[in-house]
Every structure is written in C-alpha cells, then in structure tokens.
Amino acid sequence: MAGKHKAVLGGRDSVKVAIAQVAQSYLDREKSIDKACQVIKEAAAQGAELIVFPEAWLAGYPYWTVGWDSAIGPWIEGRVRFRDAAVLAPSEDTEKLGRAAKAANAYVVIGCNEIDPRPEVGTIYNTLLYFGRDGSLIGRHRKLMPTFSERTFWGAGDASDLVVFDTDIGRIGGLICGEHLMTLVRAAMIAQGEDIHIAVFPGSFALHTGPQMVEPDAKGDFWGHALVRAHAFESGAFVVSACGYINDAAIAEGFPHKGKMNIGWGQGGSSVIAPLGIALAGPVFGSAIVYAECQAWMIKAVKAIVDTMGHYARPDVLRLMVRGESGWRRAGPMPVAMAEALPRDRLKRAADEREVDLDRVEEVAETMIRQAG
After folding, report:
1. Which domains does the chain possess?
2. Is-catalytic flag, 55?
C-alpha cells in the first residue's frame, strides 16, 4: 500500500498571501472591523488565501506613554477608550470577522487588543486571532511578554496558545513583535513544523538614532527585518512580516493624546520572506496591501540543505522543553534510536490504564533508557 504523502503547504504548489498595511479607525472597534472586512474582501478578490493584519491593528497600538506623572484627565480618558476598543473573543465582533473570512474563502490573522473573557478580570492582552476559511475562530496567541512600557497596557500570555495550526494551506504559526527576540520561543515554533510563520509589528523603527527613543527606520536597520529573515532560514518556512501603518487622520479629533503620540515610525515596512531568508516582497512603506506568492518547492529545496528539525538537528545533545498546563513537554523530535525504543501506542495504553499524563510516562521512559546506557 502506498504511504500517505507528507504535504508542504497543504499539498498545494503555492499559496498567495496578503498583508493589510492600512490604517484602522484608531480605537474605534466597530469602524475598524468594518474596514477589516473591506480589506479582506479586496485581498481575496486578488486571490489571497491568507490575509494578515499587523500587531494590535484592532483597534490600535498604544503609541502614547503613561506613568505616575501623567495628567489624570487625559490618562483616564485614554485608558477608558483603550479598554472600550478591546475585543472579546468569541463575540459578535469575532463572528463578523469570521463571516468576512468565510465570504472570502480565506484564512485571516489579525492583531488586536483582547480583553480577558472571565467576568472578574479586566486584563487586556496583545493577541493574534486566527480565523479559518469556514469563518470559525480557530485559535489565538497572546504575547508572552509585553515590551518595556507596553506592560502598563497589556498582561502576559502563557504557553497554552504557543501553537501551530494545521490547515489546508500549510502549518501556520505566529509571534508578536519582541517575541522574535525570545530565542527559545522561536525555537518552540520551529519545532512544531511551520510552513508559514506570521510576524506582526506596530511599525518598523530604529532604536538608536534619536532624538526620540523610537524613530522611523530610514535605512533598513529595523531589528525585526533581521529576525524574520533569520527565522525564515532557521525554520525553512515563509515569514509574513506585517508592520503597522497609521497617520494622523486615523486618530479621531478629541482623543486626548492626539498630536502628542509618537506615530511617525508607524509607516509600514511589511515584507514576505522566502525560506532561504530573502525577501519575496518588500519592505513596503505607506498605505498598501502587500502580496506575495509562496511556492512549495522553496520549502522543499531549502530543507534539503538545512532541516533544523531533521537531519540538521542533534536531539541527543540539545532539546527544548515547553511548560504547559499538564507540565513540561518536549518540543521537537527525540533521537531516532530512542523513538524506536519507545513505541508510543504501548506507552499510551500504559498511561491510560493508570490515568497518568502521557508526556510524564514518556519522560520517565526516556530517563530510564538513558540511565541504562
């Protein structure tokens, strides 16, 4: 009997992707959702099957700074508007986005400010929401560690949604901005076998030029460009790097921080990176929908050279552990000899019979094999 073919990009020769590098209606959730639906329709009309919106696109990244010395009036109004624009998932808002994805017959990934659904909790997270082509909300990812002053706006995520989604256009995962500086987090995504990695940022920016701490990137020095290129090559995957775009017109008159927000660096810079680490599209600046065609042969060819989870891995020397709700779990493959010595079906039967977590049984069995030499 012929074996089942191990598909790349869901068995497709190519997948067209789109980045929605357009301004939202800043901190207006309803108008921003309407705009997102229009962009989804437009991108799908151009053949896009994966449509990505930047970090906190719904309904805006906090481009202003707050602290104990903030004027209390503007601080209160700004925080109230920020909370009122946050998204509850699932809700009527996500259902509307889901209907747009279904009508477009496309996968949609959108950055948002997501409010914790528990009634007693008011924490807001920096979140990626994933919608299937059937309109379902298939998952989310919350930023693990808000960066610097972001911690005054967002709570921290956990490992429960550090996942890759297996779809008919390939295995899709994503991280948010500074998470790409967390080497082990990127390694955990690579270990799950991404075909397409989504990287979202609020803009492309320089941290070293001044006079402000964050300035527009004029020379391609944005650290995000270097990291998404590295991730593409290390993972053998395409990277859809979505950078935010905003202008003063997107911010409503009367918003207390209007005219005092550092938005000059929110001018886009989106790109799509091939598995070899080179750009297929971009970086593009200004208001635009950025398109690229991702070819399956590129993944296959690059992994023939360097397969970081296969022939270029040394799990007998190094391995990554990720802590989930049921404890520590292994990320990535185990050594071949060890895998052959641990028939998973037998271990699963033993775990089920004793009502023990399978990961714990595998961990103990591996330890015993190592100790036995």
Report:
1. 9-305 (3.60.110.10), 334-372 (no CATH)
2. yes
